[in-house]
Amino acid sequence: MHPPVTDLFSDELVARLAQARRVAVLTGAGISAESGVPTFRDPGGLWEQFRPEELANVEAFLRNPVLVQGWYAHRRAVVERVQPNPGHHALADLEALVTARPGGDFLLATQNVDGLHERAGSQHLVELHGNLRRTYCTRCGREAEEHEVEAVASGEPARCPACSGLLRPDVVWFGEMLPEGAMDRATEAATHAEVFLSVGTSAAVYPAAGLPLVAKAHGAYVAEVNVERSEIVAHLDEHVRGRAGEVLPALVERVRAWRVP
Ligand code: APR
SS3 string of 83-100? Predict the structure, then answer.
């Protein structure tokens, strides 16, 4: 028999979230799992089906642009078919609660490239690994229109109509730098956070995985929400074992209802 969701997290986490003025959140693929977007390292995840070295780095792209463009077109199609889930919406609600407080400061840093946080209404958002719904030219940098990206159907790589450069998804591949300023904003928020939530990430990929540790080192109360224990759980204050789409709405409801005892 599963304990009620509200038993999965502590009263201390609720009280701290209800009183904090500076809150920061890191999310990973696990928060989109309940929307139907596969994660990377879980059983049946993307890296079990596909080899990252063949799909998620520049060398692989230049070796076989049709294969890589095709794979991202497939992932874009998956994302366009799904909706944000209650976990995404709960974080947008938490943002509204915190930013309504005097001096309230909130940042959601996501590793996800699916755009579901934005579709759920999150505004104080930084996409650390880009967004697969954007595509740009590798030669002139011009952002491509949707229809220009579809050329892969013909077996030819999609090219920029302006300069014929190869078109690539605006995501961060292994070995690449994160978008300008993204990590600075996230590190700033982690450094000043009173409460930091790490949601649905294995914390296996740096520099993003270091953010909860930065927050911890600067005195924040750090909790992770995950169906499993992540690689950094031993360094955190609380592990909330549950599905983000069930835990986060219940947590935000408790925070909204919280009153000074
Ligand atoms: N609710 C909460 N957590 C979940 C859920 C769920 N419903 N389903 C899965 N999880 C957890 C898993 O237990 C796992 O710890 O989400 C985590 C997903 O981990 P990964 O698949 O490793 O994804 P992520 O941490 O986002 O990967 C980081 O690696 O491949 C790169 O660039 C890619 O951004 C990605 C980065």
Answer: CCCHHHHHHHHHHHHHHC
pLDDT digits (tens, 9 = 90+) for 178-213: 999 999 999 999 999 999 999 999 999 999 999 999
Amino acid identity at 72: Y
Q: Are strands 167-171 and 130-137 parallel, antiparallel or unpaired?
A: antiparallel
Tell me the CB-side half-sphere exposure of residue 104, using CA atoms within 13 A: 14
- CA dist., res. 161 & res. 108, Å (int): 35
Structure tokens at 13: 């986490």
Catalytic residue of the set 89, 117, 129, 239: 129
> What are the tokens at 259?
């009153």
Q: Computed over its alpha carbons, how large is the radius of gyration of the chain?
A: 19
Mean pLDDT of the chain: 94
The reported pTM is 0.96
Residue 137 β-bridge partners: 167
pLDDT tens figures, 27-77: 999 999 999 999 888 887 877 777 777 888 999 999 999 999 999 999 999
From 8, 25, 202, 247, the mutation candidate for ligand 1 (largest count of ligand atoms within 8 A of CB) is: 202
Q: Residue 145, Cβ neighbours under 10 Å: how many? A: 10
